[in-house]
Amino acid sequence: MTDPNTPHRPEKVPTPAGGGINPETSMMEPATGTTTTTEQKSYSQNQLVLRRFLRHKGAMASMIVLVFVTILAISSIGVGPIPGWWDKDYTRAANVINGGSPTLSLFPFTLGEHPFGQDSTGKDYFALVMRGTQISLLIAFVVGLLSTVIGTIIGGLAGFYRGWVESVLMRLTDLVIVIPLLVLAAVLGKIAASWGVWGLALMLALVTWTGLARLVRGEVLSLREREFVASARAIGTGSRRIIFKHILPNTVGVIIVSATLSIASAILLETALSFLGFGVRPPDVSLGSLISQYQNAFTTRPWLFWWPGLFILAIALTVNFIGDGLRDAFDPRQNRNKD
Amino acid sequence: MTKFILRRMGISFLVLLGGSLLLFVLTINSGDPIEDLRESNADNRDYLIRQRTAYMGLDQPWYSRYWEWLTGAAKCVTLNCDLGTNRNGVEVTSLLGNAASSTLRLVVLATVLAIVIGITVGILTAIRQYSGFDYVVTFLAFLFFSLPVFWAAVLLKEYGAIRFNDWIVEPTFTPLQILVTAGLLGIAVQAVMGGDLKRRALTAGATLVFVGAVMYYFSAVEWFRRPAFGAVLILVVGVAAAVGITALLAGLKNRKVMWSALTTVGAGLAVYFAFLPVLREPTWLSLLAILALVVVLGAVSGWFWGGYSRRLAMGVSVAVGVVMAFLIVVDRAVAGWMGLLSLKSRPISTIGSQTPNFTGDFWESFLDKGVQIILPTIVLTLVSVASYTRYTRSSMLEVLEQDYVRTARSKGLSERVVIVKHAFRNALIPITTIVAFDFAGLIGGAIITEQVFGWKGMGELFQTGLKTVDPAPVMAFFLVTGTAAVLMNLAADLAYAGLDPRIRR
């Protein structure tokens, strides 16, 4: 089954940033021992990460698609009082033209009157989907940001102070984890029903921080035993400075990657909740509630079903790819680009 | 070890208790339980309100309602559950029985499939890192991971059920379909097997010819309407499995294991013929007894053939026994397929976990439940397979870089031994955590899946409970899922101890 000719190890690159003795390099270059090898231009840690990220083709393509979707959603129907370039409104019913079928065509590219078609009451579906995308993106980013902040604070406190603080916070985390995520989110989403979109986002953030809290705690636990923290402590550095200057910068990779991935899971969670009827409520629309509303129209008006789903998929997929690119960029061991 | 597990259990129990309190309080505060009655114009409105108040205990403070639920749930220890009544006065315990059985059937099947497929594919992608196969699987994993489950489920209903039912009326393949399917499979198989250009071409060609011939044959005899499996196929597949499992776990040079595995195949066939009359009309009990017999015979044959590698021989033979048991079930189920088609001309219905008022013999109702579970299982499995594949891949890659793997290679061990014994076993340790952790997520996913496929499972129980601000069904849901999650964590702890001897101390 396996072919002995192919090497199974990834092409491992000596990491200029990593400390200690790298066994591969020390074997190849017995004279130097430590790994300050390259004679070319040297980069700081941040520059290295950025360079690795910018070279990740999947992440870059995803970035372009995500930015495009975001700009499309915001600019087309506008935000609040600011009008967009699309002349139809997502709330206004109209005459159904040609059974409401979509007028979008790619060759030659024309949008037509109703590019994504119309629903049964003649509302312009392009405007509806754009509104849904706005709401879903808004919730996803707010949830991603808030849950990252909560998770970092709780995980950081637990890992740094140990003792009873850790016990209390980690038992709290266990408590939230033991209830299935969707169940807890549904209950909180129902409570937040009258608070609108921002309330829903807040509630979702309150249930999605647990994974990051555990990750950050683990990171902090190992970092606080490292020599540089011990020496900082030995010269009398205060806790606050140690946390913000020595520990947090070293966990930033984990946090950013996790935040990105939590945006992707937030959009899936929100659309699932809206689909079940515990998320975004009418008159507001999200991509999930659109699918829920039109799922039985699949045989007669398939476009009502396809578009919102494709937009969810596109957003979640691109965000996941960006997260993967960031992970590769922050983790030099995973890296295969030579730089 | 016992102390460690007991301590873990104790903590899990306390967390479960806290979680139940949290969920209870949140649920009863999520809305107004008598909102619909307040707005109703019925003549007996006051009576209805009083009745619901009595059923739900709305006149009591929240802590006494919670206490009542807790003491009722505590009776489950003596198998005498009292989970209260829902707002219409129906005993939740009786509702839960059916709901839990169909949901757990779905979730357990999905978990098992996801573990098997996810870990296998994960290892293959790790071994073939940065190959075309690896990139395709990685992309698919990301795709499935980002897939909105409810959306995929509706798509599957259309293409998996309705189109399949149209097709089964006249189940033939066009030459183009045969060519495309066989071609795609050929490309996939050569990508997994690897090797130089000649070997790849040979693999692809052989796969293409084989698959094409099989599909042509199936199409010609209308196999999908009048399928047959039979003893010969059991024998062939059984022997292939025996050789394959032996080659993977023990190496073909280990003749003792090889003979033991082949003996198990023979024993399985003997059992199949001896019990054929029973197998035609079994009950669940007799079927399980027969299947257990096959597995036990495998263990016995391993014991006698094993010699110096007795443990290994028993393990391999038990695995082969499981395969044989599975093949026997497949054979009987396939034999019942025509019966199912005559009872149900459109076999996969898009709604429900089984056909209501279904009158068929054992195998026909087995098949009925079987085809109904296929689509929800696929939906549930996709997401988990994606994450297990990724985790297994990265875990394997990390292990393959370790010094002990280099040592194993440098002392001349074969690649099979290095991967199966040295790398895979260690790579499994982190995966165990993920799988145990993911189980609760799968139950959450089952809520959506059940909604789309119209199952009357626990998801439905939870959803209606929450919509009507009725804590009893919600808490029953939590009791089952919470207990299942705790049990899965326990299983993970035991698996840890099995995989890593340092923990056993």
From TrEMBL, chain A:
Bias (Basic and acidic residues): 1-12
GO BP: transmembrane transport
Domain ABC transmembrane type-1: 133-323
Membrane topology: Multi-pass membrane protein
Keywords, alphabetical: Cell membrane, Membrane, Transmembrane, Transmembrane helix, Transport
SUPFAM superfamilies: MetI-like
Compartment(s) of residence: Cell membrane
Pfam families reported in the protein's UniProt record: BPD_transp_1, OppC_N
InterPro entries noted in UniProt: BP-dependent_transpt_permease, MetI-like, MetI-like_sf, OppC_N
Location of region: Disordered: 1-41
Transmembrane parts of this sequence: 60-82, 135-161, 168-189, 195-216, 247-269, 304-323
GO CC aspect terms: plasma membrane
PANTHER family registered for this protein in UniProt: D,D-DIPEPTIDE TRANSPORT SYSTEM PERMEASE PROTEIN DDPC-RELATED, OLIGOPEPTIDE TRANSPORT SYSTEM PERMEASE PROTEIN APPC
Stated family: Belongs to the binding-protein-dependent transport system permease family.
Name the record gives this protein: Peptide/nickel transport system permease protein
Automatic annotation (TrEMBL), chain B:
Keyword Membrane in annotation: yes
GO CC terms of this entry: plasma membrane
Membrane topology: Multi-pass membrane protein
Pfam families, sorted: BPD_transp_1 (PF00528)
Keywords: Cell membrane, Membrane, Transmembrane, Transmembrane helix, Transport
Compartments, as annotated in UniProt: Cell membrane
GO biological process: transmembrane transport
Residue span, ABC transmembrane type-1 domain: 100-496
Transmembrane segments: 104-124, 136-156, 176-194, 201-218, 230-250, 257-278, 284-305, 312-330, 370-388, 427-448, 474-499
Presence of the UniProt keyword Membrane in the record: yes
Domain of life: Bacteria
Principal subcellular localisation of the protein: membrane
Family, similarity comment: Belongs to the binding-protein-dependent transport system permease family.
Protein name: Peptide/nickel transport system permease protein
